[in-house]
Design goal:
The protein has about 300 residues and is α+β, with helices and mostly antiparallel strands. It has a single domain (about 5-305), classed as 2,3-Dihydroxybiphenyl 1,2-Dioxygenase, domain 1 (Roll), CATH 3.10.180.10. Helix content is about 15%, strand content about 35%. The chain has 5 helices and 18 strands. The chain has helices at about 20-25, 90-105, 160, 190-200, 255-270, and strands at about 5-15, 30-35, 40-45, 60, 80-85, 110-115, 120-125, 130-135, 145, 150, 180-185, 205-210, 215, 225-230, 245-255, 275, 285-290, 300-305. The strands form 3 sheets. The chain has an 8-stranded mixed β-sheet. Strand 17 and strand 18 (about 300-305) form a beta hairpin. The relative contact order is 0.20.
């Protein structure tokens, strides 16, 4: 199986207006800008004064063509459904909900849900990139049957959640420490093909199924990657010259350099194209390469030396 310590390291988004999107991610989500260069912003949960300020969770880069089109709905192209910001404690989810009730433009709000394993709030940014902000329930209370975990979509109990917001003076102005990218959820053209890539080739566990969606994870997590066909099975793959806002790639950290080497060889055995580059932050990754799933979604596999 793939390294059980695997996690989603970061997501890289292409955006129409860098300044506007930086403001949204800072003022609404609580990210901190830790680096800005050549129309690329690196965002973290850590302030620039912290020793780990080189770490980032979201990268946003401005598209070169200023005449890009902004969709008022999801285009019928494979790619991002949402990326998910995992908060370290439930009380932070309560603080975040109170914050967006006061400060989020309603047009960006999408909903809330209780998934049994977690509780979630959904929104999208000005470029219609989907975002989930969530906290996990105690993994000891997750219900497993063999390798399948019980997940549902039910209304979030807001009244109960707000019992966590005991600090009435707490104001949401930054993401708490230990915030991470918990998972990514992708639009794909075919669930069987997606399962072949993420389960058969990457060797993630197939942890759950939902109408039109499959969930995959390393170790005993509910999911690191989800795939769905909710846009239909005749959607277009990702094109390398696509100049619309959306996902550029997401990154998976294996935390072990030898495992990264073994995975690269495994992908080559399955004739998956490898693009070997070291990008984003030369000081952060000692090894890195790109690969593409069967819908052309770009994935960076990396070993984080820290």
């Amino acid at each position: 199986m793939i390294n059980p310590n695997l996690e989603i390291d970061h997501v890289h988004l292409k955006v129409s207006n860098l300044e506007k999107l930086i403001h949204f991610y800072e003022s609404i989500l609580g990210f901190k800008l830790v680096r800005l260069e050549s129309k690329i912003a690196f965002l973290s949960s850590s302030s620039s004064e912290n020793k780990d300020s080189s770490r980032f969770l979201v990268v946003i880069s401005e598209l070169k063509d200023n005449a890009v089109s902004i969709f008022n709905h999801k285009p019928r192209i494979a790619g991002l459904y949402h990326f998910a910001i995992l908060l370290p404690e439930r009380r932070y989810l309560a603080y975040f909900l109170k914050h967006i009730q006061k400060n989020l433009n309603p047009e960006y709000y999408e909903g809330m849900a209780d998934h049994a394993v977690s509780e979630s709030i959904y929104l999208h940014d000005p470029d219609f990139n989907g975002i989930e902000v969530y906290s996990d329930r105690d993994p000891n209370k997750w219900k497993w049957k063999d390798h399948t975990v019980h997940m549902v979509t039910e209304p979030l109990n807001v009244k109960d959640l707000f019992k966590e917001a005991i600090d009435v003076d707490n104001k949401w102005n930054e993401l708490p420490g230990k915030t991470s990218i918990g998972h990514v959820h992708l639009h794909v053209s075919n669930l069987v093909k997606a399962k072949r890539f993420y389960y058969d080739i990457l060797q993630l566990n197939h942890t759950a199924a939902y109408p039109g969606a499959y969930f995959f994870a390393a170790n005993r997590y509910h999911h690191h990657v989800a795939t769905n066909t909710w846009l239909g099975e005749n959607i277009s793959p990702v094109y390398t010259d696509n100049n619309n806002p959306g996902l550029d790639h997401y990154a998976i950290n294996l935390h072990n350099e030898n495992d990264l080497f073994l995975l690269k060889n495994r992908l080559l055995e399955f004739k998956i194209d490898i693009d070997e580059k070291l990008i984003e932050n030369d000081n952060q990754f000692s090894s890195s390469f790109y690969a593409y799933d069967f819908d052309g979604i770009k994935i960076q596999f990396l070993y984080n030396k820290s």
